[in-house]
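Following up on my earlier thread - several people asked me to post the actual chain instead of describing it. Fair enough. Here it is, all 108 residues.
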Amino acid sequence: MNINWALTPIILVLAACATRPEHENFKRVMERQVGKSIDDPDAYPVFYRLRQKNAKPLPNGNMQQQYAAGRNGRCELNFEVAPITRQIVRWTFEGKERDCVIETRGPG
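Reply from S.P.:
Thanks for posting it. Predicted structure:
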């Protein structure tokens, strides 16, 4: 048996695990956005100058604001915003875990 073929499953598992912390980091950061004003300079879409793709009213009276986020803008990030306070009340995403990430930086 060729050693390269024997290592392939191990390499694939390690590659899959490598994106997990970045996606978990993404989810933690987005959870911290809830309660902030969507206009706050520290709000994720403002601070990182995300491209807004769409905004639409929701049946409950709130607005959904949609942004291109993550790797190469391939993650669709949605914030539900209360209309009067402009406060973020909920967030969701659509996309692959490998695209919906905030890259972690190691020391150094």
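The radius of gyration is 18 Å. That should answer part of your original question.
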